[in-house]
Amino acid sequence: MYARSLNAKQLSHFQAVGPDYNVTFIEDASELAALDQPFTLLGAGTNRLWLNPQHSPLISLKPLNYVHFFEGGLVTVGAGAMLPIVINQAKEKGLGGLAFTWPIPASLGGALAQNFGAYQSQIGTLVRSMTVYSPLTKTLLTLSPETDWFSYRHSRLKTDGLVLIEATLQLEPMDPSHIQTELDSIRHQRTKRYPLHHTCGSVFKNPANIPAGKLLDDCGLKGYRRGAVHTAEGHANIILADSGSTTQDIADMIQHLQCTVLEQTGVTLEIELEIY
Question: Which of the residues 77, 237, 249, 254 has an alpha carbon 20 to 30 A from that of 214?
């Protein structure tokens, strides 16, 4: 266990300047039991805006970044492992199934906590077992997720207050060249809509009957600029942060987008991005 002081710019892929935070890095799951007060868990920064001053201990599982392969396409991955690294290692062994996340630099723990999904796939469907830490009982539990564990942009890891330590995923045998073709295609689809840097992806959840991006587009918000931040030219549900932007700039943009859609359509957009 060790600690570092980091700015919001270092904790989020927006790379926007914000408050400073003291972060404790966990090197072994047993160290979590030494924490005496409720803590906030960090992921890799692909879905969080660091806006407010620190009000709780911040814990990172980044050192838990191991990847172990087993027979039958099973792979056990530590919560801190980055998905692009897992994908490349799996490709070398002829295992696919994670291409829909490419090349988003998310950690496994963060991806499962929000049940990362894209292109009609969700990462929760690949989970066969999980080791989690319960802050309530200060114990490690091994779980086999049931059907209600994962839903759209949600998992019971959040609602039950559990910390993912590792998960075993079921991948599928696939020719490495086919996997690479799939990765190239996914990257092309993503980059033609928006850059993959200085952004945390979709800001709002999709309402029941219409994509959030279409609502924003119909309100004339595609490519909309407000100070040092702007929405993507090809996808208004993506906010991009310019060099020199602050986390408050992003928060102001989010509020403006919500208010504009509400005024013009009557729909209240729910924020998918996590705000600390």
Answer: 249
**Spatial contact of 156 and 141, defined as CB atoms under 8 Å apart:** no
Q: Which residue has the tokens 């894209």?
A: 118
pLDDT in tens, 242-260: 999 999 999 999 999 999 9
Q: Which residue has the tokens 């700039």?
A: 249
Q: How does DSSP assign the chain, residue by residue? A: -EEEEEEHHHHSTT--B--EEEEEEPSSGGGGGG--S--EEE-SSSSEE--SPP-S-EEE-TT---EEE-GGGEEEEETT-BHHHHHHHHHHTTEES-GGGTT---BHHHHHHTT-EETTEEGGGGEEEEEEEETTTTEEEEE---TTSEETTEEHHHHTT-EEEEEEEE-EE--HHHHHHHHHHHHHHHHTTS-SSS--SB-BPPPSSS-HHHHHHHTT-TT-EETTEEEETTEEEEEEE-TT-BHHHHHHHHHHHHHHHHHHH---PPB-SEE-
Pairing of strands 229-232, 172-173: unpaired
Q: How far apart are CA 95 and CA 118, in angstroms?
A: 19
| Side chain identity, residue 24 | T
- Per-residue model confidence (pLDDT) at position 37: 80
Tokens of 156: 């019971």
Q: Would you say 254 and 230 are in contact if contact means Cβ atoms under 8 Å apart?
A: no
Query: Does residue 143 contact residue 130 with C-beta atoms inside 8 Å?
Result: yes
Which residues participate in catalysis according to the annotation? Answer: 153, 202, 272
- Residues 16-27 pLDDT 10s: 999 999 999 999
Instruction: Say what the pTM is.
Output: 0.86
